From TrEMBL:
This is Helix-turn-helix domain-containing protein. CDD domains: HTH_XRE (cd00093). The keyword Repressor does not apply. PROSITE patterns: HTH_CROC1. Keywords: DNA-binding. It comes from Lederbergia graminis.
Amino acid sequence: MNIGEKLKLKRKKAGLTQEQVAEKMNITRQTLSNWEVGKNYPDIDSIIRLSQIYKLSLDELLLGKILFKGESVMTKKLSFEEIERLLKKHYPDAVNVRELNGGLVSQTYFFEAGEQRYIFQVGGYVENYKKESFIDKEFNGKLPVRRVLEVHKTDDQLAYSISKFINGDKLFDLNSQQFYDVVPNVLNLLDTLESVEVPDDKQGFGYLDSTGNASFPTWLDFITAVYNDDIYNWDPIEKKGLDSEVVNKAINELKKHIHCIRLGKKNLVHGDLGSYNLLAKDNEITGIIDWTLSVYGDHLYDKANFLFWNEDKLQPLIKEIKNKYITNNETKETIYCYMLRIGLEELYNTVIREEVGYDIEWVANRVNEIIDSFLDE
């Protein structure tokens, strides 16, 4: 979905006509229409004004991103003074403490102590920090992951971790030329991730726990779980405000094509690769962060994740992924199944479980778009 389509979707969700928005902004209806069909785009002042009219943050307006996926909203945020006190409990010489872009789930800070630089995160679940610690201990040296030094809870049960700092910028923050230059190394990283061996003593498929084990006996069980009534109960979907047609259509399509999934090698899969959790510096990928949604399964699941979210920023990379990995109809069908599962999981977590996630209208529209056109591309 391009920026114009996002602007149109947000306007409709706000219940406003083009005429009403144009009047509020003191522009012509045609100007707004041109933005929404992608003939040209608003300047930053106009984007800010649109976000105010639609009562959305800039992230919500442009990215469709409400909150971070798979987490509860952080109910308590620590003040800067509380952060400093907590840091100095472990690092009395901590200096240059500053907040980084994090989210509503956790607070993320940079600090220095001695000659070293660190990342401090607080909020979310302690299990997720322990999962990051497992990834570090098992795969650091094979993959550019953060060195997790400590995982703790505060007296009132807030989880937090301290990790080594990785130098680099998120792909989202790179300019167009910088991103274009780093694309070959993102592809190399995907090759490296695919080559990593899962330890023989780690069991199961699907989402990892903090010990590095997963709960599904087979990869196919994980993929088909979204239409297993004992695991995913879709019955309340209409009462929760989402038309069940898109869910039923996606499930039927997944069932129709599920025969194409054949797992050769059990891979470590990040599960949420995108512009926010890959770090780069000087055209090199320096870090893969946030392993909360990592799974054991098919490496193509990571490629399907790129294709499902279809970020505007990542279009040069997405084009290369399609060229490199969609080499025959069977591979295309497999990725199609994974994209449907990713969409269904997002709908279920956000609508049924009422976890925070992305704009549900965008996700539903994206699922429909994939069903209508992906196999015919």
